[in-house]
């Protein structure tokens, strides 16, 4: 075994040391796409926010409602399919390794849930405090409700991704037995689901596409791991096929251009997800796979790879807190004389000031990342994992709370003006799953 090199002080120094110790066998492109996707999500969300003071009231507008031409930009900024693609690759690697090493499902799942659920709990506690302080200083409940709902949008991904993680043993077994047929079967189910949604008017069945669409993309992660997406010609075939199908259903079908939900639109490609989202994911995947070899060579450099490691080390923190950072900045600007909030969205002046707002958002997020990033890096637990049923039950309880909070926000009619019962669910789920160890009684001698 090679001797471990002592890490240098500071996050960048540690990242460089880790970069130097990375084995050649690691697929660095997986980590790079995860980091690239998180940066795209953050910049896209920050760009969509169009705050404005109207009649002395703060309104958190959405740029997509002011500038329909920006709907096309969502094709690049909507990168959730890439997260599930990368997740499929990573889950395939870790689950197959777990099988080879003789580990049980509960051991693998406990580690996964710890990384996904623990970092979101400080965010919920933080927003409970923000709501309480906001009420004390007299901020209207409606503004607090909208602000919290905007800030907690990222947790919908966690709710869905945790459910996908629970099913990894089944989806990996399906991949091992049926290969790409397991992907095409899920894609077919997503297409049938859309037909029932649009043609038959069965709106309720649309929610099943949270499983069909994202599990299908996750299966493509297995395909990537096993080399089924390699080669420039193969990658371009996937990209071309996905793009052609996407343009056809956009032109002839009822699908909107925007790949994110637009306030006021009757149909959304994401809520619940439609086959258009799967087609976009296939197109993005094919384009990215075409650059894999070239970017892999670039990532052998210490600088690019160290930066990738650094972003991945706090990726959950910056993802979960980035909209809280921007919301706090907007709130402070509003409280101190409507700084920069009296400009109409999608005007020349508004666009010229976007870089300034972005820099301030980055500073705010950096401060939050320093404060809470250590919780993510220290999220592993030395305590033995709970049983499989405890982990699954805990995950289901936590996901129920996260899903409701993502849809309805944190403000309610209960104690301190919070949706308290729902807020308790993620914490209760973490306790059930053993992710928050309860204090044990000391044994008498």
Helix content, binned percent: 55-70%
Uncertain residue segments: 1-7, 441-445
How many beta strands in the DSSP annotation? 2
Strand arrangement within the widest β-sheet reads: 1-2
Question: How many individual helices?
Answer: 21
Q: Give me the secondary-structure category.
A: mainly alpha
User: How many separate domains?
Assistant: 1
Radius of gyration: 22 Å
Query: What gap, in angstroms, lies between the N and C termini?
Result: 42 Å
Please state the overall shape, judged from the principal axes of the Cα atoms: globular
Round the mean pLDDT to the nearest integer and report it.
Answer: 90
Main sheet properties = 2 strands, antiparallel
Approximately what portion of the residues adopt beta-strand conformation? Answer: under 5%
Task: List the secondary-structure elements in sequence, H or E.
Answer: HHEEHHHHHHHHHHHHHHHHHHH
């Amino acid at each position: 075994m090679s001797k471990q090199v002592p890490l240098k002080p500071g996050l960048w120094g540690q990242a460089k040391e880790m970069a130097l110790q990375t084995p050649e066998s690691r697929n660095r492109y997986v980590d790079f796409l995860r980091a690239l996707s998180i940066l795209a999500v953050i910049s896209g969300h920050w760009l969509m926010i169009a705050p404005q003071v109207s009649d002395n009231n703060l309104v958190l507008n959405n740029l997509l409602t002011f500038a329909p031409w920006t709907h096309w930009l969502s094709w690049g900024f909507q990168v959730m399919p890439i997260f599930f693609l990368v997740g499929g690759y990573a889950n395939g690697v870790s689950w197959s390794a777990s099988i080879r090493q003789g580990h049980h499902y509960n051991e693998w799942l406990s580690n996964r849930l710890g990384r996904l659920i623990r970092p979101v709990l400080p965010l919920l506690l933080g927003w409970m405090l923000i709501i309480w302080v906001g009420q004390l200083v007299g901020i209207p409940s409606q503004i607090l409700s909208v602000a919290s709902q905007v800030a907690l949008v990222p947790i919908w991904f966690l709710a869905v991704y945790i459910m996908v993680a629970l099913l990894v043993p089944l989806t990996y077994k399906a991949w091992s037995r049926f290969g790409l047929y397991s992907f095409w079967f899920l894609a077919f189910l997503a297409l049938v689901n859309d037909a029932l949604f649009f043609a038959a008017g069965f709106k309720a069945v649309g929610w099943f596409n949270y499983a069909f669409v994202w599990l299908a993309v996750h299966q493509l992660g297995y395909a990537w791991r096993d080399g089924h997406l390699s080669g420039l010609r193969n990658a371009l075939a996937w990209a071309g096929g996905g793009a052609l199908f996407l343009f056809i259903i956009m032109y002839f079908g009822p699908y909107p251009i925007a790949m994110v939900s637009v306030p006021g639109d009757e149909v959304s490609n994401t809520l619940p997800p439609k086959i258009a989202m799967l087609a976009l994911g296939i197109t993005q995947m094919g384009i990215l796979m075409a650059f894999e070899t070239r970017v892999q060579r670039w990532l052998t450099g210490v600088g690019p790879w160290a930066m990738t490691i650094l972003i991945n080390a706090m990726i959950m923190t910056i993802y979960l807190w980035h909209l809280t950072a921007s919301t706090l900045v907007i709130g402070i600007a509003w409280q101190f004389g409507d700084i920069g909030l009296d400009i109409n969205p999608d005007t020349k002046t508004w666009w010229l000031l976007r870089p300034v707002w972005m820099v301030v958002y980055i500073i705010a997020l950096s401060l939050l990342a320093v404060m809470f990033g250590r919780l993510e890096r220290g999220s592993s637990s030395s305590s033995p994992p709970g049983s499989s049923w405890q982990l699954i039950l805990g995950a289901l309880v936590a996901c129920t709370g996260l899903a409701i909070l993502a849809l309805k926000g944190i403000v309610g009619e209960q104690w301190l003006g919070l949706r308290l019962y729902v807020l308790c669910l993620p914490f209760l789920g973490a306790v059930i799953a053993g992710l928050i160890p309860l204090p044990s009684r000391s044994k008498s001698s």
